[in-house]
Write a structure and sequence with these properties.
Elements (H helix, E strand, L loop, with lengths): L46 H11 L12 H9 L8 E5 L4 E4 H11 L6 H12 L5 H6 L5 E7 L2 H5 L15 H14 L17 H4 L1 E4 L10 H6 L5 E7 L3 E4 L6 H12 L16 E5 L1 H10 L3 H11 L1 E3 L5 H9 L8 E3 L7 E5 L7 E6 L7 E4 L6 H7 L1
């Protein structure tokens, strides 16, 4: 083994524990003391007029927006259990404080359901972790954006898709939830293409994001959040994604043959994992249930799947131009076997089960590079009376 930089294993981090939540809002009619701190602006309530106005003001993403009236924002908060002024994180590049109120405002504009607040909060917490490197994700020349994989019963409660069309094209609330997070990146974090973000081409994912579930019930392995962070139940994992890549294999019959096709497909020279500018990288791989079932017959341990994938997800050093090869060689990236591997270790290939049952497809998400995926529990509100009794 060469002296390459190792990615910090997520298992060394302690799993966050959801805290009891108590009602923090006085309802749509407000309180004697006004909890809402945001500046009020007069605007047309007609959706078309408000959308035009939002684009002029720099709040919009090009799609129609729901006006975040005081009544709508208060209703969103009243149906949840958070103080509006609670700070969830500071988000770069603006480093502005992302409060629950700011989340609610953007969620209302995106049309996200009120029940999605805790998922959005957990998602924001994952990308605010220093190891996720949100500054780079938001400002780079790459088309990267945070993608999220959801575990637990909340998938069905919120309609987070994990079967047919889960990465896009199926009509679910996940689209609005993903869009709410994207609006937060624009309106709180301050990500603006050509200004604070130097993204060369951008991506459709920078509008709607990706919020997908894991099909735990059809997975032969433990859920992703449990494997990564020891979290059972509701959780979300973030990944700095460069888009999606489809891999089709209608020919292979043996498990290793499928993994060879997947591994060789994701390891193309121009992805960021092979750039001298990036010392390491992860890759996220969604395997559909049919393929997962075939693999598990010979590989009941997910670590064996990752190991096999990792061996094939590599390229020979002499594929690259001399200058590229010299730079990677200087970084210790070329192994003793003369190959360059997609990720430092097999564990950095993040595998989960999702997708429809119509064919043997796999979806891969390539990394920006310096962004490390994060997993957090999603808090579950409990009635205020029960919380107070437990104190």
């Amino acid at each position: 083994m060469s002296n390459i930089v190792k990615i910090k294993p997520a298992k060394n981090k302690s799993a966050p524990v959801p805290q009891p939540l108590i009602s923090r809002d006085c309802g749509p009619e407000g309180c004697e003391v006004d909890w809402l701190a945001s500046r009020r602006i007069e605007a047309e309530l007609d959706i078309e007029a408000f959308t035009r106005f939002s684009l002029e003001e720099g709040w919009g993403d090009g799609l129609p927006l729901i006006p975040p009236t005081e009544s709508r924002v208060r209703t969103f908060l009243a149906e949840n259990d958070r103080y509006p002024d609670e700070v969830i994180a500071s988000l770069p590049p603006s480093n502005a404080e992302c409060t629950v109120e700011k989340i609610a405002i953007n969620a209302v504009m995106a049309g996200a359901p009120t029940a999605s607040l805790e998922l959005i909060i957990a998602a924001i917490a994952t990308i605010a972790d220093p190891d996720f490197e949100l500054y780079g994700v938001n400002t780079t020349t790459a088309p990267v954006f945070p993608a999220f994989v959801v575990n637990g019963p909340v998938r069905d409660e919120l309609g987070i898709p994990y079967g047919y069309g889960c990465f896009g094209g199926t009509a679910t609330q996940a689209v609005a939830i993903g869009r709410a997070i994207r609006l937060i990146m624009r309106n709180v974090a301050g990500q603006v293409a050509g200004d604070t973000s130097q993204t060369t081409f951008g991506s459709p994912g920078r509008v709607s994001g990706i919020v997908v579930g894991e099909w735990e019930e059809r997975s032969p392995w433990a859920p992703l959040a449990e494997r990564r962070a020891g979290i059972t139940g509701n959780a979300v994992t973030s990944f700095g994604a460069m888009g999606t890549m489809n891999i089709l294999d209608t020919t292979s019959q043996k498990p290793e043959n499928f993994l060879e096709m997947i591994g060789k497909s994701i390891a193309y020279p121009g992805n960021n994992c092979f750039s001298p500018a990036m010392p390491f990288g992860e890759t996220m791989i969604a395997i559909n249930p049919i393929c997962a079932e075939i693999l598990a017959k010979e590989m009941p341990n997910i670590e064996d799947v990752q190991e096999c994938l990792w061996r094939y997800a590599s390229i020979p050093g002499d594929w690259l131009q001399e200058l590229h090869r010299e730079q990677l060689e200087a970084q210790g990236r070329i192994r003793e076997d003369g190959r360059i591997y997609q990720t430092p270790e097999p564990k950095d290939l993040i595998v989960f089960v999702a997708g429809g049952l119509g064919g043997l497809h796999t979806t891969a998400l390539h990394t920006f590079g310096s962004s490390l995926s994060q997993t957090r529990a999603i808090a579950s509100p409990i009635p205020a009376g029960e919380a107070q009794a437990a104190e």
